[in-house]
Design goal:
inorganic pyrophosphatase (n-terminal core), 17 helices, 3 domains, 6-stranded parallel sheet, alpha/beta, CBS-domain, Diaminopimelate Epimerase, Chain A, domain 1, 21% strand
Length: 432
């Protein structure tokens, strides 16, 4: 017998990968784990008759020649089929999380794409397999869920090409709206309000982080949605919540990242869980010390090994500036000669203001042009330290509609970070 399975707490990427792998190996039994996510459960309640799922008992009681594992590469994550460890002829793994496998696979397809479904759709395309509209729609759900509708930092061009291929095969995007929306009700709303109220905001490696501990009274769905919404509302680079269940003596850690320099999935794998660069979780059993878990999360953040580009790495320096007594006439000529839209005003190394083209245009009369720039400069200046992350700096530029941020360290102006510098980062134009 051959079998295909995926990880427990099955999401749409896992389900779609399971079905896609079944198309590649039609002789294999499809084994769905015991626990599935609420939105997947809702989907299956309508579509289950379209799938021929086998029970775990049906497979574990037979000789399995080939075991195909999708969207994970760890024995402990495949529910009851983990009992087949050491008893399978060959293991075949399809995964995109980047973790080292403990399954000693005879075949492994591992790639850094946004969704595991993408890898299997590419193979279906190569083989010229027939895909029904319903299957194409399910595969779209798998890719869209794991890439945040192609917006997560982990999304690649391969994911987008796979989506285009599925749309060509009549995948229905309007169907996804009904199933990709996670459950959000009164309990999730209460947890969200509690998280926003209790969240501790800290800086780690130049990133703004929100972290908090929440106690659960009974089981709750949609916890990942709560953390995701809290990150957006709190406007931080990453958010982490430690949900404790005292009666079960366990803690659930969920993280969401909005920047590519914080790999949440890698952190959660260290804690025994998994995920992607932008999203991950871990279940900690026999742990009733949330404060200790929080310290662990913070230590992992400090030891984050993804490349962290800070504005100090991209800022322009040394900084050309005006002295406070420079006349507006002199300033206008200098801005014209340099082709700058503005320059800082510095007094003995200390930033005291910013003079922009708009400020210069206010000096229209001859007497005004003879006045010093300190009479026209903007004094309410937003500054940033050199260790601020580029994404956070870019968000602040958008929020306050500013084209440049003076970079200050120990009270002294050391550089200027501009929109052009941000573009170097976002369009991957950084020097090797």
């Amino acid at each position: 017998m051959d079998a295909v399975t995926t990880h427990n707490s099955t999401d749409f990427d896992a389900l779609a990968s399971l079905v896609a792998c079944g198309l590649l190996h039609p002789q294999a039994k499809l084994v769905l784990p015991t626990r599935v996510n609420p939105n997947v459960k809702a989907f299956l309640s309508i579509h289950k008759d379209l799938f021929a799922f086998a029970s775990a008992k049906e497979v574990t009681g037979a000789t399995v020649e080939n075991l195909f594992v999708v969207d994970t590469n760890q024995w402990k994550r495949i529910d009851k089929l983990s009992s087949l460890k050491g008893k399978v002829g060959r293991v075949h793994v399809w995964d995109h999380h980047g973790a080292e496998t403990d399954m000693a696979p005879a075949f492994e397809c591992e790639a850094s794409v946004g969704a595991c479904t993408t890898l299997l759709v590419e193979q279906l395309k190569e083989k010229g397999a027939v895909i029904t509209p319903m299957q194409a729609t399910l595969f779209l759900a798998g890719i869209y869920e794991d890439t945040g509708n192609l917006t997560f930092p982990s999304t690649t061009s391969r994911d987008a090409y796979a989506v285009a291929y599925l749309l060509e095969h009549n995948g229905e995007l309007d169907v996804l709206e009904n199933f990709l929306r996670p459950a959000y009700g009164p309990k999730q709303k209460d947890l969200l309000n509690e998280m926003i109220g209790k969240a501790q905001r800290i800086k780690v490696n130049g990133h703004a982080i929100a972290i908090c501990q929440l106690e659960l009274a009974g089981h709750a769905f949609g916890l990942s949605l709560v953390v995701h919404m809290a990150r957006d509302i709190l406007n931080v680079d990453a958010a982490f919540a430690i949900f404790t269940e005292p009666e079960q003596k366990r803690s659930i850690v969920i993280g969401r990242s909005g920047v590519d320099s914080i790999d949440v999935g890698a952190m959660m794998r260290v804690m025994g869980g998994g995920g992607h660069p932008s999203a991950g979780s871990a279940m900690l059993k026999d742990v009733d010390n949330p404060a200790g878990v929080q310290e662990w999360v913070l230590e992992l953040l400090k030891d984050n090994r993804r490349s962290v580009v800070q504005i100090g790495d991209l800022m322009s320096f040394p900084v050309e500036s005006f002295a406070p007594e420079t006349t507006m006439e002199e300033a206008a000529q200098k801005l014209k000669d340099r082709g700058f839209s503005g320059m800082p005003v510095v007094d003995d190394g200390v930033l005291v203001g910013i003079l922009s083209i708009r400020d210069v245009e206010k000096a229209k009369s001859g007497s005004q042009k003879k006045q010093p720039v300190k009479a026209f400069m903007a004094r309410n200046i937003f500054t940033a330290p050199p260790d601020m992350s580029v994404p956070r700096a870019a968000r602040l530029m958008v929020k306050y509609d500013i084209g440049r941020i003076p970079v200050v360290e120990n009270g002294k102006l050391i550089g200027i970070f501009t929109r052009s510098d941000a573009m170097l980062y976002y369009y991957d134009l950084l020097p090797e």
